Amino acid sequence: GAARPVAYLDNLNPEQKDAILTLDGPLLVLAGAGTGKTRVLTTRIAHILATGRAYPSQILAVTFTNKAAREMKERIGKLVGSAVEGMPWLGTFHTIGVKLLRRHAEMVGLRSDFTILDTDDQIRLMKQLIQAEGIDEKRWPARQLASLIDGWKNKGLGPKDIPEGDARYFGNGRGRELYTAYQDRLKVLNAVDFGDLLLEALRLLREHPDVLADYHRRFRYILVDEYQDTNVVQYMWLRLLAQGSKNICCVGDDDQSIYGWRGAEVDNILRFEKDFPGAKVVRLERNYRSTAHILGAASHLIAHNEARLGKTLFTDAVDPDADKVRVAAAWDSEEEARAIGDEIERLQRHGSNLNEIAILVRASFQMREFEDRFVTLGVPYRVIGGPRFYERQEIRDALAYFRIVSQPADDLAFERIVNTPRRGIGGATVQMLHAYGRANSVPLTDAVHNLLQTEELRGKARTSLTGLMASIERWRNQLDALSHTELAKMILDESGYTEMWQNDRSAEAPGRLENLKELIRSMQDFESMTGFLEHISLVMDRDADDSAEAVSIMTLHSAKGLEFETVFLPGWEEGLFPHQRALDESGRAGLEEERRLAYVGVTRAKKRANIWFASNRRIHGSWQSSIPSRFLDELPEAHVEVVEQGSSYGGYSRSNYGAYGASRFDSQATFGGSSYNTPGWKRAAKTQAFGDGSWSQGTGSGRTPSGVKMIEGELIAR
Ligand code: ATP
Ligand code: MG
């Protein structure tokens, strides 16, 4: 029926209303950040329910994260009350995939109580298969196979769809074979991996027209948020399901497509009108989130991208007192963390709610400095979308090595590292050590020592344990001879732990190596290994209290769709942001995706966006100067204020940049005469970039980055 004027439609602008009231047929809402896309989706659902167009169970609504799904549910609840309770099909692609598969498990060769493997299980399984095939695991590591298969699954390709014996693929053309074997094995185990949640659900719908027809009848309305980041298999799913009612509404922003590296295809947006004939496109141009300065800065920045549809954005929030986007320099990342910590305390004193403050980093290793600083200051924080720095797998492993060296009785540490990297010490051996330890009331390392005197330990386990014990002994003897950072590095190198990740060709391995380097860097702030480990136990001891007010720390990738009054954006330096690996691997396209990430970052802010860069990074114990990010040069001066740091921050004010490159100041003229009016950071960039030739050579070894696949805890997100 015709829409009655109702309260939830108040205050919406005409385009938003149009998008909400156009219920029949395909609809694409294409609009920039903060224009109310998510709000349109929520209100649209409320409207469908309030007008009795569909039952809650007849609406399929897809969000990007589980968190977003919860928030959406809450918001709908506020509009329509308890009706929202009956919405079983509101969630991420993955949660909806699980639901589909549980209902029809037997149709894809599973039982409904199938298990969902986590990444570790997945890798272990692949290792077995690789070994069984007699493939050299050093050359063809399991993690590489995992990311290959993951990529295929994201593209909607089953084992049968892969060209046979394609030599480019794993194990000299045996990728497809292993993929088949892996899928067969999963079926035997009654298990699926994350990729299957999408791929098998697609297969189900494709191969069972009766099931598909059933869902065609069921889903009267389909709604999708963050559409620009759907991948091929998700897209195929949606297209298939939307053939029923044809009432599909997708909202997205091509400028916020940031998951290309994980298989997302921004082309899905461009294809929408072609694939859904008769589609209506609504554009929203008014931004309700940010101040004019923030919007102006973000719009100007993203305009440097070529591959974009182009959009207009404006705001009515013209407040003459609004802060400009602030750009500030720190001497190094430690000072950056200190200054941001001070600023947050200042905001708090002036009444800011910590929940309205976020720090958005490009790579997960950057979190360490902030976490340490907040612990020192006693400022509560939470890490969103992934583990806290010291809780990451590679950090825990490394810490376990350090602990067992300084504290021989630390059984937990010993157990963690005894077979990491793999040395052929199996569960049975570890159990035997435990049994001995318990029976004789001695720690595991003593158990090993004593058992090595007997014949009970044999074969590979015996050799490996002998080697490991000798290493631990040797490292322990260096505790006083070497500095603790040197020793730490030595331990990670000699144990084969660093090498394990170096040989790992998965997307997250470079980020883990970067985190390990950051760990060692962080140790320089302490006098001894013991001092450092004490600090760690204090940091680790903090309980995460989700209800309390806290600053949020997260990667830019995890920040999508969120908003905060104040946003801090540290680390805007060439190589880190834009990220070197994105540039190396994807060239211009990589740069543009980095720029979209910057756009996402700046547009999270409602009132204040503070961008920082460090002039120096400490890499392998030596200082190297860094170049401020090119994105800083792309910000419009009208909306930006370059903050002159006072002496409280060590006096690295603009004049210091002059001093920094003063002797080479003349050479600057060669590279662009008009630099006298440029803000300080630009001048700094030039003097550093051209005055100090060490940048390109200097960063070679330190250019690590990555952390590209840093959304560990968020795998269930789409
Ligand atoms: P993003 O691209 O970052 O996901 P979005 O387009 O989804 O942004 P929303 O999060 O829906 O934008 O809205 C941004 C902010 O503007 C929210 O706080 C929302 O409540 C507010 N907002 C949206 N529309 C209106 C409106 N018509 N009147 C007042 N506030 C609005
Ligand atoms: Mg949104």
Automatic annotation (TrEMBL):
Its EC number is 5.6.2.4. It is an enzyme of class 5 (isomerase). It catalyses: Couples ATP hydrolysis with the unwinding of duplex DNA by translocating in the 3'-5' direction; ATP + H2O = ADP + phosphate + H(+). ATP binds at A31, G32, A33, G34, T35, G36, K37, T38. It holds the Pfam family UvrD-helicase. Residues 10-291 form the UvrD-like helicase ATP-binding domain. Keywords: ATP-binding, DNA-binding, Helicase, Hydrolase, Isomerase, Nucleotide-binding. InterPro entries: DExx_box_DNA_helicase_dom_sf (IPR013986), DNA_helicase_UvrD-like_C (IPR014017), DNA_helicase_UvrD/REP (IPR000212), P-loop_NTPase (IPR027417), UvrD-like_ATP-bd (IPR014016). One of its GO terms (biological process) is recombinational repair. Belongs to the helicase family. UvrD subfamily. This is DNA 3'-5' helicase.
